[in-house]
Structure formats: structure tokens, C-alpha cells
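Each field is listed here:
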Amino acid sequence: MKKYKILAITILTAITWNCKEQKDLFSIDSNGLKQVYKPNESINLSILNENDVPIDSVVYFSNESKLGTAVKNAKTTFKLDQLPFGTQDIKALVYYEGKNVECFTSFEIVSNITPKILEYTILNTYNHDLEAYTQGLEFHNGVLYEGTGQRGESTLRKTDYKTGNVSKKIGLEPQYFGEGITFFNGKIYQLTWQEKVGFIYNAETLEKEKTFNYFKDIEGWGLTHNDKYLIMSDGSNTIYFLDPNTQKLVKSINVYTDTSKIEQLNELEWIDGKIWANVYQKDAIAIINPENGAVEAVLNLAELKSKVKQHPEVDVLNGIAYNPATKTIFVTGKNWDKMFEIKIK
């Protein structure tokens, strides 16, 4: 078991300075630049020009999005509050003597919010199928739905959460490893892990109506929704917002604390305007601002694993379901024999 270190990860992106050509002619001035910035900061950019070659202008880009233009080689200040969290690959396109050359550097933008550590109370403990390798968990019309994984064992099921009894279950074809589930407009959406496809079911009958391909070559991990988008994780620190009708990418956010990115985002749930995400192998949940990816709070649930039956297949915490009827949160894990109803203090 790895120690819970969600606030202690340090990932720094090394700064590199070079030009694709004419390396001895120009470079980005590194004096005063840092490796890591926060959104409330600014950077000053200019070109080192040791041979005093006449420069007409410099156009600066971040991840191919234009930041602005400097006349001649004027030092230019750029605010960082409009840039997303994550690595910023800075390109300077230097125009001189009818020619141009590209110079590069990079740095990282992290959140300026220090996550709060939340406390919780266990309200109830319920039975949970010990053989359910939980990948998705969600309430719909008072019924708990669960998606489970493992090839040859993956299912989609309706469950009476008070007893743990499964009232209806369908199995996925043996080549599929089931992942996250969510509801949208009377349909259930279910991801698969490495097969790069998802399924759409009738919410009442659980009959499969459609198979869709992922919008790019990624894995499927967690799935939830708000009133407009499907929201998907792929095991990285990126969360994707998809058009529910086409399953195509609309936008994405990178998830960061004030020190580092948070990777291995797994099962997701939308609660009170925030994205709640299991952090794989941390037995913890990150509460994420959906606008910018800032981790605003952390819920450490590591103690729950000690309360479930210990057996060879028992695995990590995974599964978050908000019950709007009780305004409480239900959590469980892979092959856990219990599910816990909790309330944030």
C-alpha cells in the first residue's frame, strides 16, 4: 500500500533553451524566469541577441496559441491568468533581415489554491457485492446503478443499496473491460478501459442501443455529467468534456494543486457544481473546480479499507455516488463487501 501523498507530489518541468536553427544568434532570455508559476503571476519575455542583429519583431506563443507581439525586441510582459494549468511550451518567432527563426522554452502553471482537507462522518454501512470490481457508481431515480470491470466479468447492474441485492444485471462481451458509467437524458453511458469504445443503454431496460468510439486514442476510466456535458477521465491529470450527442471533445482541463498535477484520476461524480474524482491507489477523493481544474479540497478515505473484509482480491477505493434524496455520498471500492454512506462535516 502506497502512502497517501496527494499534496506532497512534486513534478517540475525542466526549462530548456534553444532555437531550431541559428542557435548562436538568438535565444529566449532566461534571466528571471522560473520553472513553476501560478495564475496570478506574470512573465517578462525578450530575446538574447549578443551579436546585435537588427530584430524587426518577435511573436510569442504558448502551446501554439498566440500571446502577443513585441516590436523590435522590446521586453514584453504577459499575464498568466488566461493560460490553462500545465506545461506551457513557449515559442518565440523572431523576424530579422527578411528571415525568421524559432526559439523555445517551457515552464509549468499550477493552481494558486491550497486544497482544504475535508472531514467526514460515516452515517450508514451497507452490504456490497464482494465480487463487484467497482468502476462506476451512480444514483438515478432512487436506484443505485453500478458498472463493474475485469474482462469476462464486466457488468452493468441495478442495485438495492440498502440490502446490496442486485435486481438486474447485464454482462459485457468478454473482450471488454468495463469502466465508468453515468446517466444523461434517459440513457446510460458506459466506458471501456483499453478498447476505446463506449456503450449507450436504455436507462429503464438496460438494453444496449449504441456503441461509440472515443474521440482520440485514450483509455476510458471515469465518467460523470453535468447539465450540458459528459465528463470523462482517462487515468491522467486531464478531464474531458464531451458532447453527449456526438461523444466528441468540446474542451478539457488539467487538474492541479498549488504544487503539482494530480494524475490517475479515476471514477468521477458531479456534486454541487464540482467534480469529485477518485485518485487511483490513493484511497482519496479530489474535489475539482470544473472551470480551471484546481483541486479545492481533498477527502482522505484511507481508513475505510480497514473496515471491509480482507481477502486476496480486495482492492482500492473506487466508486462515488451522490444521492440527491438524502444529500449524502456513497463510496465503496473494488471487491469490497461494504459500501459507506458518508456526510461531509
